[in-house]
Amino acid sequence: xxxxxxxxxxxxxxxxxxxxxxxxxxxxxxxxxxxxxxxxxxxxxxxxxxxxxxxxxxxxxxxxxxxxxxxxxxxxxxxxxxxxxxxxxxxxxxxxxxxxxxxxxxxxxxxxxxxxxxxxxxxxxxxxxxxxxxxxxxxxxxxxxxxxxxxxxxxxxxxxxxxxxxxxxxxxxxxxxxxxxxxxxxxxxxxxxxxxxxxxxxxxxxxxxxxxxxxxxxxxxxxxxxxxxxxxxxxxxxxxxxxxxxxxxxxxxxxxxxxxxxxxxxxxxxxxxxxxxxxxxxxxxxxxxxxxxxxxxxxxxxxxxxxxxxxxxxxxxxxxxxxxxxxxxxxxxxxxxxxxxxxxxxxxxxxxxxxxxxxxxxxxxxxxxxxxxxxxxxxxxxxxxxxxxxxxxxxxxxxxxxxxxxxxxxxxxxxxxxxxxxxxxxxxxxxxxxxxxxxxxxxxxxxxxxxxxx
Length: 454
Prior knowledge:
GO terms for molecular function: L-amino acid transmembrane transporter activity. One of its GO terms (cellular component) is membrane. The protein has 454 residues and is mainly alpha-helical. It has a single domain, classed as Amino acid/polyamine transporter I (Up-down Bundle), CATH 1.20.1740. Helices cover 71% and strands 0% of the residues. It is built from 17 helices and no strands. It has helices spanning 17-28, 36-44, 47-74, 81-89, 91-122, 131-148, 151-175, 196-210, 230-256, 258-263, 267-276, 280-313, 330-349, 351-359, 362-382, 397-419, 423-446. Helix 3 runs antiparallel to helix 9 (230-256) and helix 12 (280-313) crosses helix 13. The longest helix is centred in the middle third of the chain and has 34 residues, at 280-313. The two termini are 14 Å apart. The model is unreliable at 1-8 and 449-454 (pLDDT under 50).
């Protein structure tokens, strides 16, 4: 593959394992964990099946993470998924994936998390009519500036935020031990079995809460210790996240009971209030805000690297390939934040439309993740001589399971989007991406990419 010559610097391995683990945890452990336990409890109707769903979610995520570990250690790159898709299917497919991430998936996630942050912080310091949007803009600008200062600075901030969120979630979990009896009694575990469709819906919520572990591939070229360090980064991250999620749900079920958890819009607040008093509502608000903040920062780190990889491969987007020394992809962050700020502006005026635009791009995300799973098997076939420091165990069983899960979530996302009459959002995003691809391809024909050997 031809690439642009980069005179503005390239990635260097200056990220420690601890910093990499906190980035992965920070992406995954967001505000969703405060909302989905109630949904999962309501859908399953049985606390045994509810906990089983969370454990199964961790297992499925670990299977996917092992697939990514092979790809990331075999083909380490700041491009992550984009790089894997490019090697397996060519630049056109990878371009469309990077397009979706740059225009909606990553930037939309950052914008929504920024709104979550703004909503909770506004409860403490209100800035007026558009307080949430103002806070959202401010936090995007502050964290963009932090990331522009370099990966070490961003990783240090990430480590601190992740530690605080982890501590807060543990406080919520431990607070259950101070409650004498749950607010409502729960029937024995597995006393009832939810329909297969409802269990599948519970898994959709669970896997959405586990979502983000795949972004670890974007830092594979910057982790100290080389490609072999990526396996412990991915495995340690998923083990910690799964243990935390299961413990958190056990605490909620133990302290509130199944029926109270299933009907609670703010289960964590109720649990802490029962043991520590009503002042705990402020604590939970601050914790949710920090969780959102952590996910924003981590998503910014990996999202900008996706933009960098795109600019490094396409002559028409070469401005995205600017790298400041060995620290950070400058233009990747600037473009990402510019689109995010535009989405925040749109969201402040048309809240429902903005939420639908972001939420209903899930079919695109899971569809491409399905292609990544297939890419692992395809690359084994077309590139058999590549050095693979780590190979997925029980091949090809685990990759096939991963692909089946991604296919199911793609199908479920399409059905849900269709039921909300919003499936056209994904189609429009990808249609514009196809037009952009044709335009850039045409421009490259008139301005050939300079190869690295020139």
